[in-house]
UniProtKB/TrEMBL annotation, chain A:
Organism: Plasticicumulans acidivorans
GO biological process: iron-sulfur cluster assembly
Highest taxon of the lineage: Bacteria
Residue ranges of domain SUF system FeS cluster assembly SufBD N-terminal in the record: 145-204
Entry-linked InterPro entries: Fe-S_cluster_assembly_SufBD, SUF_FeS_clus_asmbl_SufB, SUF_FeS_clus_asmbl_SufBD_core, SUF_FeS_clus_asmbl_SufBD_sf, SufBD_N
PANTHER family: FES CLUSTER ASSEMBLY PROTEIN SUF, UPF0051 PROTEIN ABCI8, CHLOROPLASTIC-RELATED
All residue ranges annotated as the SUF system FeS cluster assembly SufBD core domain in the record: 212-454
Pfam families in alphabetical order: SUFBD_core (PF01458), SufBD_N (PF19295)
Homology family: Belongs to the iron-sulfur cluster assembly SufBD family.
Protein's recorded name: Iron-regulated ABC transporter membrane component SufB
TrEMBL record, chain B:
Domain (SUF system FeS cluster assembly SufBD core): residue spans on this chain: 180-408
Protein name as annotated: Iron-regulated ABC transporter permease protein SufD
Any one GO BP annotation for this protein: iron-sulfur cluster assembly
NCBIfam families assigned: sufD (TIGR01981)
Family the UniProt entry places it in: Belongs to the iron-sulfur cluster assembly SufBD family.
Superkingdom as given in the UniProt entry: Bacteria
Sequence ranges assigned to domain SUF system FeS cluster assembly SufBD N-terminal in this UniProt record: 38-176
UniProtKB/TrEMBL annotation, chain C:
Pfam families membership: ABC_tran
Keywords: ATP-binding, Nucleotide-binding
Organism name: Plasticicumulans acidivorans
ABC transporter domain segment(s): 2-246
Domain of life: Bacteria
UniProt name for this protein: Iron-regulated ABC transporter ATPase subunit SufC
NCBIfam families: sufC (TIGR01978)
GO molecular function: ATP binding; ATP hydrolysis activity
CDD domains per the UniProt record, alphabetical: ABC_FeS_Assembly
Residue runs in coiled coils: none
Amino acid sequence: MSAETESLERLADGGYAYGFVTDVEQDTVPPGLNEDVVRLISAKKEEPQWLLDWRLEAFRAWQQMPVPDWANVHYPPIDYQAISYYAAPKKSIGEGPASLEDIDPEIKKTYDRLGIPLVEQEFLAGVAVDAVFDSVSVATSYRGKLAEQGIIFCSFSEAVREHPELVRQYLGTVVPTRDNYYAALNSAVFSDGSFVYIPKGVRCPMELSTYFRINAKNTGQFERTLIVADAGAYVSYLEGCTAPMRDENQLHAAVVELVAMDDATIKYSTVQNWYPGDKDGKGGIYNFVTKRGLCKGARSKISWTQVETGSAITWKYPSCVLRGDDSVGEFYSVALTRDCMQADTGTKMIHMGKNTRSTIVSKGISAGRSQNAYRGLVRILPGADGARNYSQCDSLLMGDQCGAHTFPYVEVQNPSAQVEHEATTSKVSDDQIFYLQTRGISAEDAVSLIVNGFCKEVFKELPMEFAVEAQKLLELKLEGSVG
Amino acid sequence: MSDDAKRAAAPDALGCATDWLGRAEALAAALPAPLRFDELRAGARGELLQRGLPNRRQEVWRTVDLNGFRAQEFAAAAAPRPVDAALLDGLDGALRLVLVDGHYVPSLSRRTALPAGVTVAPLAEVAAERPQLLAALGDVPAWNAEPFSALNTANFTDGVVVHVAAGVQLDETIEIALLSSEDTAAHPRLLVVLEAGANARVTELQRGRGRYFSNPVTEIRLGEGAQYRHFVLQDESRSAWQFASVHAELAAGAQASLHRCMLGGLIGRVDLTLTLAGAGANATLEGLALAADGQLLDSHLTVRHAVAHGESRQTFRGVLKGKSRHVFDGLIRVEQDAQKTDAQQQCRNLLLARMAQAQAMPRLEIFADDVKCAHGATVGELDETALFYLRSRGIGEAEAKALLVRAFAGEFLDGLDDAGWRERLEARIDAWLEA
Amino acid sequence: MLEIKNLHASVDGREILRGIDLVIRPGEVHAIMGPNGSGKSTLANIIAGRPGYEATAGEVLFDGKSLLELAPEERAREGLFLAFQYPVEIPGVNNLYFLKAAVNAVRKHRGEEELDALDFLEKVQQRAGLVKMDESFLKRPVNEGFSGGEKKRNEILQMTVLEPKLAVLDETDSGLDIDALKVVADGVNALRSPERAFLVITHYQRLLDHIVPDVVHVMVDGVIVRSGGPQLALELEEQGYSLYGRAEGESRRAQA
């Protein structure tokens, strides 16, 4: 496709350039959810009995749980029997993730179009990619190079086969099966995802990245990611997500668990660009995700950075449990909503260990008729002597039909803690735009300049290539929002 | 199904040892005609029956465990019981209305000649003599979310009415005392109506002895450009339960300044809803909670900006010692039409003890784009550096701490325009720190 | 008046002072000079009793009493004053009120009557004039929103009101313009008397043009390496600390 056609298409799509469908033969389980479906998923993946039992326990718990209704989002009840819980491109079934050469050319083209090369040594040299297509991982690059240092980076299914002891040791330890409604659902039916293990003292030499793509119709995506950084290890991980444009809503209910041992650091970045639905709110992904990191060891650090620009509804709270003394949790977020999008996102920082520190920087941008909420909890438990938290939540409103909300919860049970929360709400002022215009900058550029300035503290936390991407993505999303 | 039949099916409809609904129904039949407010009270009983008392699964009630309260039996005092006159300490003006156990007590009250257009009188008296002044009573939008407002509405027998006609300024401070005696439940009702351009101020004292339940509801209606100041000293007994509600509505250009100092109660909770309904209205809400061992002080504030050009400030401070808890849950809601709103919200907590626990939920819900809204929350202990600085100047450790706590509370005191109360509160803070 | 013997001190377990000996008699002005990180401010803080500063060996006697045993406020009541390098802001505490509480705490300790509000105000106003401080500062919270120079003036004002026996000035000159510097010096000189002593800690010689010391000490890496008359300060100004094995303005510890 020529660049020109592409940009025209973008205009027509209201800025969503990733809405195409890939035509591949799919192996799809019929819609519906019961114990047999759970058993079928487990059987397709040739899982050991303990994992099937774990899934079934989660499924039974899920059936007893009420749908959470506390978030500031509104949508008709989801019919869980109308969703298909498993879809995989046919060619990849059986032998596990294909070697890079064996990937279905259609799928390879898909990722090329998305700007995610599955070929090593190309554009994103120095970034290893695990590509998840609907329910399965289709390829993982740079595996050999990483293995030299003992780093495991593979699909979740493969990890279950090749490293069952590691998976069993950590799975569900950060997000228990009964943690919440969507986590329980994910635990029952998760299909694939990424697994990362960084051994003691190893600094992962490249960015690890997973690219999630929903393609099939009427399916949900339920991936599971588990990252373990052993003592003194370091890893920076990035995930990206897109989906085709469809009129129906599709459910994405992922679980991400991070474990950082003594002196380990995990940096987890997300650029989320699921299909947000059309201008009138038709279609789009329901992004109901549970992400949590456990700073298990002393001086460990977990840093979440997210740029949320897509999904009809976003419901996610990447959190840190700061158990190790002197451990550090960070949350940097930009959430942009436009048209009819709804976002209720934020974080939880649970301070358990002594001298634990956390920082929260949240930037919400609302445009159109969208609703954008920050919801965050800072809890200082009695044992967390000397704990520190600083939170800053800023909202930027563009237009008078949207809403910006801030719901912080601060709970302090230790007098030596220092907790500070600040929040402001502002708009892109006409004066600011005018001032920039008098210096020769177009109104659109002025807005993106102002918005990028507003988001700067978050963008600087992203790995460099992705910071540039995120900035571009934001500009694209803001097109047509001025006025 | 009739109310009776429903209750027969569930003998303790609200799950309480005290039969609140039965009592309310008996009362409804026994009240003199002017005080009946049949429709209003039936509505409140219906709400209670349907929704019951709150539980912790409800977001705004998740901070309070009501099981202790449910187990309590409280007597309905048919008449006021004698109380210790010392409970009135601090009220020495010429205009003082005293309620004991929810009943007006003439012998403890002082009435003075009032300017034309001003009514300050017991509610039962106003209901009998000038019922037209009570038109606004119970005109509360969404009180179903506040069961304790409904409980008061179903059970009040008396209260105080303040009515100031347009353009009239009342210089005398209106003093109101809500006193409670042991084992009672009281549901006093306050109605304040200031017509356009009127000006008045109220000082309200809430005190009692022993174990009891205090359930006051205050409704405030301010007309265009009216100016109103209301200072509440919640000084209930440390074994008391208090669930108080305040509903205020401000017309264009009205100014309300509501100060609340909270010291008492095993549980002391206030649910305050204030709506800026007219352009250019201005509200200041200031709170100071001093929570000692065993206490929960719980403030839930909603400030709603319904129209443009409103200004609001919420500043709540908590000082906590012992095993105590302070909850601040404040919401600023800016409706879509409320452009040019300037709203701020601050909650600061000072923890003086290991077991003390502070919870702050300063919330913003904003639907208009051209607004200035900010909020903040801090929790911390006394600043060690400041403490050392003071000590290095020869000030003893205890006094230095007291100085810093007083400074922390100072902005609240500065907002009081009554020097007498400022001094009394300063002394109370010192005594509280030493106790 | 002040007698320091073989004082060792550490902060966060790191030894900063490594054997200080110093005697200051009534009426004397001593200056301690030294490169950054040499331990000058640590000495000031140890004398004042700042929490976290631990004397590990030696003693500090003030009029024969051991200072190290005393709480900071007790030291102040005994007549010790520290002008802070970084005066802290105390929001909400009124400057005048704070000063009155301090003055009366000292007077009470000495068995003197507490000053009444009028006498006190008169005294403070007179002293405020001396340090050229606008009276409006008295009504503001302690140091809050004060500029660097205003904070230092406020320190000197407190000193002139509290009339200590021994005043320790911890880099009071840093960050001051020449006018503010003169105010500080005038404040000190006005208080100079046969009964009172000063310990002036500074990095630069220029303050000593205005407060002429009786003795100058050079401190490097936690020990006093040389003592002498006022001319020593001038020598240092010309030659720097290189004579003592240090690059200009730097101590070994600061480089590390």
